[in-house]
Amino acid sequence: MDGKSDLKNPLEKRLGYQLRRASVLMMAALTDRLADLALKPVEASILILIQANPAITQTEIGRVLAIQRANMVPLVAGLMERKLIGRQAADGRSHALHLTPAGRLLTAKAETAMLDHENRFFGEFSAGDRERLLAQLNEIRTGKGDSDA
Amino acid sequence: MDGKSDLKNPLEKRLGYQLRRASVLMMAALTDRLADLALKPVEASILILIQANPAITQTEIGRVLAIQRANMVPLVAGLMERKLIGRQAADGRSHALHLTPAGRLLTAKAETAMLDHENRFFGEFSAGDRERLLAQLNEIRTGKGDSDA
DNA sequence: TATTGTTATACTCTATAACTATA
DNA sequence: TATAGTTATAGAGTATAACAATA
């Protein structure tokens, strides 16, 4: 009941390929899900990071999320303009970021959306499978990936 | 022995986030690895797909790899110019693609590079863990992800 | 000298619309 | 009417270089 084609795709056996395809699919779904809140995934991530780390600076956020300083500027400016976050001078050159009340509210909604989103994709997975998958993905990041320094 | 910071990252508990970070890291590593062959990951994927499916057309490749028809044009043109692939008229509007001898040689090298690359990241994983991870990633793609039609 | 925030800029990847020639 | 290949183009996302102010 498919009949779409008889094409072979040897890449389906490649972990890196499947990793990327799954990631792209989930990112697209999350983008749709967060569009209701007028947030992009990266913006939601920034809000969550500020919530977890009061007085974090935008350069620090960039370091955690692997975003260049230069590219943080319009992101922070956008959240400031929407009055979701505020800044206070930390020292003369850096600014401590915090969530506004509106930002706290929206961050809570974003977190709910992200959990729903995750359950949509992993709802059939057992808790053990989720934990193992999470640990394995984390291993990829923290394991052999450190040889690019 | 780290001292890098005391920042919390709640996103590390999110499967979608870890999936993306792992994917980006592996893609960057693969890009480096294939640079020796003057191939981008997408070009290597196209070569492998042509090898596995003689007489495939570029639109079909795009369908398999989720690449727009329009974006296939410069990719195929580049591989043609390097004489890694050739084309023959299939019907009046489509062309059957095939690997040239040079293309076959380079594709073999690319496959070796991709296997090495995969072992670099998953070498510590047991065969069972690899299989399970592959199956889980495939489930993400073929499971709940089909509701965007 | 190093770091923060910033501007400007370029490059890649991806998406859309429209055209042609074929089916 | 639908499809393959193509062109042109626009929009993200990401990267680098340079600068001013501050540490």
Overview of this structure, please?
2 copies of one chain form a homodimer. Chain A is mainly alpha-helical. Helix content of chain A is 62%, strand content 7%. Chain A contains 6 helices and 2 strands; from the N terminus they run ααααββαα. In chain A, strands 1-2 form a two-stranded antiparallel ribbon. In chain A, a hairpin with a 5-residue loop joins strand 1 and strand 2 (95-99). Chain A is elongated, with a radius of gyration of 19 Å. The model of chain A has no long low-confidence stretch (mean pLDDT 93). At the A-B interface, helix 1, helix 2, helix 3, helix 5 and helix 6 of A face helix 1, helix 2, helix 3, helix 5 and helix 6 of B. Chain B binds a DNA duplex (23 and 23 nucleotides) through helix 4.
Mean pLDDT across every amino acid position of chain A: 93
Helix content of chain A: 55-70%
Strand order of the largest sheet of chain A: 1-2
Q: Ends of chain A: how far apart?
A: 50 Å
Q: What's the total number of strands of chain A?
A: 2
Following the backbone from N to C, one meets helices and strands of chain A in this order, namely: HHHHEEHH
State which percent range the strand residues of chain A make up. 5-15%
Principal-axis shape of chain A: elongated
Biggest β-sheet of chain A, characterized? 2 strands, antiparallel
**Whole-angstrom Rg of chain A:** 19 Å
Structural class of chain A: mainly alpha
Assembly state: homodimer
Helices of chain A, by number, come to: 6
Q: Uncertain regions of chain A: pLDDT < 50 for 5+ in a row?
A: none
Biggest interface, CB < 8 A: A-B, 60 and 60 residues
